[in-house]
Amino acid sequence: MDIDDEPVPTGRSIDIELGSQEVITIDLDNLDSNPEDVLELLRDGQCKVWVWTKLAGEYWRRGYHDAAEQIANNAIASFKMNGNTASLSPIYALLANIQLAHSRSAPKLILPNAREDIMTNQKPKEEYHKEAASLINAASKSASDANQSGEPAVGMELAFLTRGIQQLATRHLDEALRSFEDVLATKPTNLVALLGKARILYMRRNFPQALQIFQQVLRCNPRCQPDPRIGIGLCFWSLNNKTKAKAAWERSLELDPSNWTALLLLGLESVNASKDGHLKEKDRTQFLFSGTKLIEKAFHVNQKSASAANALCEIFVQKGAFKRALKLAERTIQFADTLTLLTEGYIRAGRVSHAEGNFLAATRYFSSATEGQPKHVLAAIGLAQMQMNNGELGGAINTLDSLLQAPNVQKSLEATVILASLRGSPRPGISSSEMTQERARARELFDRIVKTLEIEDGKANGSGLSKASRSIGEDMNMHLEIARLWQDVNLDRTTKALQEALQISQLSGIAEPRLLNNLGSLHHLDSKLSEAQGFYEAALTQSIGSENNETISTTILYNLARIYEDQGEEEKAKDAYEKLLSRHPEYVDAKIRQAQLLHNVNRNSEAHELVKESLSSQSNNLNLRAFYTYFLIQTNLTKNAKDFVFTTLKDFDKHDVYSLCAAGLIHYNQARESRDTSSKGTEERRRGFLRSTEFYDKALQLDPCCAFAAQGLAIVTAEDALGSLSGVSSSGGEEAQRRIQSTRDALDVFAKVRESINDGSVYLNMGHCYYARDEFDRAIESYETASVRFYHGQNVPALLCLCRSWYAKAMKDQSYPSIRPALRYAQTALHIQPNDKAILYNIAMIQQKSAEMLFSLPPAKRTLKDLQRVIDMAQHAHRLFGALASDKSQQVPYSRDIADQRRKYGENMLRKKDDHLAAQTKYEGETQARLDAARQTRFEEKRRQEALEKEKMETLHREAEKLAQERRLAREQAREWTREARMNESDEEKEKRPKKAKKVKGDGPGSGDEGEAPKKKRRGKIKKANGEPTEEGEEPAAVFSDEDEAERPTKKRTKKRVVRDDDEEEVQTGPQRKKQFKSKEVLSDTDDEMEG
């Protein structure tokens, strides 16, 4: 680029005139590093500014920066001395560019506490930029002065370019773009301005336009420096055309093997290619090796490049060379000119410090990284890890939570997993309610993670999970954490999470026995006993030879024994408990289960001894004391149970929830079973109910989720224990209204308890409430659920409740079908307890009521079969009531007088059985006769209709045969007509042939010369109906009849022929023909006619 009006010499030398005749030539290819001689010549020759600039530029180009700066400073001094400062604009611009060149190799940030890359004695980049700005201002002023004096404006253009470069270096993109645009307005092909504009467009992510400008520069000057191919490659890479990007960088490196930018970019491209999971391991290793070599070479060429240092630092971190990695990380931090590079430098320095155990330095580095980019995932995770290491769990949660908050939400699975784990773990200074909320948030986060993994795994492209996502999905600890969070909320979700963890464990070849045991426990709780047994047995097998084998196998064997016990295999359970006690004689839980097995077979004294033996060794074991309380209540030792419960509350734990619930139950049962009707007894009864509610209420205060206490209070509410049940008098209407409201309130409580307790008692209590409200269908539904799901149809109270509900429904609806299930359930209960006379009384009552109900119905609403059945049942009930009334036992659960009255009533009722049977027989006989008559009438009508239908079908058949005969005759006649038409056509042709031969010359275009013999006429082939031609004389296919022709679609055809006069005469004089049927044929003319 020209400096002023004087032409610049084209050779590699400069001539300096000394005086009028002496000229000294300076060879630019052999410059001395010491510029003193050159300076003396320049001063003596009073050279123009372009000479000073040329020489200074040559020194700078050869790397003699100090010499170039010295020449430029001497030029300023020399021109100022001569008073010619207006032409110094190029010199000022040169000095500014020299300062900018220094700034490129100067640190932007100097770390005061750097351990490896110490640069405290270096001049920072900002000072160079300030000096460059000052020099640019001077250049602009000088150029302005030159313009005012009428000199060319080359200096102003140079000042604009230099200012644009300085603004670009300081990231003032808008001002830099205006500077470059000012230059391009006058010189559209200025390469420096074009390169500057292209860089700005690239930084603003306008890649297509930036690419066009870089390509324009390349077309203008293929040898341009800096190489535009670097920018072209970057644009292609950003436009996802990585093949062209790599080709551009490779071409740049081919032209300049020392181009560190091309080396670095190609190295990064190879490292990225090595991460492709679809490549073979050998290819990936080769890519990584070649990429590492290129990055190392790039750093050796330019050791002040933050990008190269950052890339090389990651390689050394992976190799474990932490000292060199730290130096490169500090180099990245100090020389980074973008926020992204600076953040990555801080992160890598933090990682190295963390690996070295220097947590204080790591915290400082990670904090600096998050200050610059608060949403940077790695920086936030690193800082959170340091905060967790320092015990600042709340700070770690806040750090990670900031990533997931708007704006700019970061979708990082790693950060979300850590945050969910932190939220789900207890930490100091947090209340139970806050912990509940935190666990709910943790569950939401884990659900989000699992859903994200499922979506990523099911993508349409089939690529599946990435390596990072796969490592998270295969993290067994994460699934265990999910199971732990759901275990108190949803056992199904817990089971699913544990199954995922088990699958991951099995991938390693060995199933974790604790996982199998936990899955067995969950299936056990869900009453899936066979599946639970399988898990327990597999866990016991896997525990052999494992760490802590004795502890794990003891727990698993106990669980397996519980499964045997629940499956009814009591001998196996007994053997397992004995095996456990032989290993650990003080294993109290096994002794408790042995006592329960003895209690089940009514060996209560032996069971009592086992429990007391266990209590002597562990009297403060609350679980053991709870079982002993249960045992005493089940063996009807209510007073002992009450004393033991109060001892537990007084001497061991007054806040024991189980003991409080047991105390409430004991007080309630004692008050409910009290038969003292005196005023003192009534008051004592009321006080007992009140104490019961107090104990239940206290239990709920200690544990708001205690479903047993809630159920106890609901029972008290449903039975109105503090109202009419306690002896408080009230009117009948008020009592009924209060009872309905109480049962409604109790049902609300039972509905919530049902979600917590998987027990039949809840459904029984709900059934009681529905029964009290006369909602018998819903009561039956609840009782059925309790009996079938929980008691397998063997619980007598549940069966009797069902009997009572069906009986009440039958009496309400006067429905005999409803009373039959009541009898069936009562008989089932009697089968289980054959000596229960109350059940026998109920059966007799139901049977007698069945007969009474059918006797009251009109014959139309009953059947003879049902009537005979209920008469038999009434006779059986008559005998039962007689036996019950004559029972000589001291105590019976019914009134003998009422039983005798029912016997007499049944006897009177059965006297009318013959009348009912006769009336029913007569009614059903008459009804059957009417039905038979109606059936016979319908049968005769059906036969008549069949006869009419048959006659109609025969008529249609005869008509069809007649029509078919007519069609057959028509086809035969059509064939006859066809044969006649053929014969007539043959006769006509015979008549035409001699006439045509006599004709010598015709008028048409197809006639020949006079001397020529007449041409032989060729006869064409006739096509068959199927399209195949027939030879001459062969009979063509038959044509259609009238009916067939009408049905077949017609096709218009034209026939080419030559009409002659004699032909027309023949046609007119020939005999008149009838209507003819033409076959599908093509008649060919003679050769002459075709030519015409």
UniProtKB/TrEMBL annotation:
Keywords: Repeat, TPR repeat. Residues 943-1092 are annotated as: Disordered. Pfam families: TPR_12 (PF13424), TPR_19 (PF14559), TPR_8 (PF13181). It comes from the Eukaryota. Residues 1015-1024 have a biased composition (Basic residues). TPR repeats lie at residues 157-190, 226-259, 554-587. Residues 943-992 have a biased composition (Basic and acidic residues). SMART domains: TPR. InterPro entries: Ctr9, TPR-like_helical_dom_sf, TPR_rpt. The keyword Repeat applies. The keyword Repeat applies. Residues 1029-1046 have a biased composition (Acidic residues). This is RNA polymerase II-associated protein. It comes from Lentinula boryana.
